Amino acid sequence: MTGKPLYGALAPAHREHQLQRLPNGDYICDVCEWQWNKKPLPQWDCPEVKRYGWDTAPRYLKTAKQLHRRGLRPTKRRGCYVDLMNQTHYLYDIREARPEANREARRPRAFLFPQARKEKDHDNAN
What we know:
Shape: elongated
Number of helices: 4
Oligomer: single chain
Strand order of the largest sheet: 4-7-8-5
Structural class: alpha+beta
Number of strands: 9
Largest sheet: 4 strands, mixed
Distance between the termini: 53 Å
Number of domains: 1
Mean pLDDT: 80
Strand content: 15-25%
Radius of gyration: 21 Å
């Protein structure tokens, strides 16, 4: 992942793929389980978690941003996918996610008290 990671998800120190050559001549990484038909370039770091193809991850794995939208905080990385811009997006198990602390305190007052907002709008109309 390039740049600053979203929502406090720290990017791990990347390492080289642990490659094994398959009988058909392809290469596979023992760690991320990604497969290539020729040896990957050294600058392609291993994400150190299982890598999924685009839209092939199990439904219970979500990005940090998806968890944040649900009021949850990610725990341990369980997978990743790489998008078309070659950015790594880490995936977290939604079943292991924790509630965000003080989420209610950060919500706008109108969101917490929708009835009060309606009354205020009604008063302004008169």
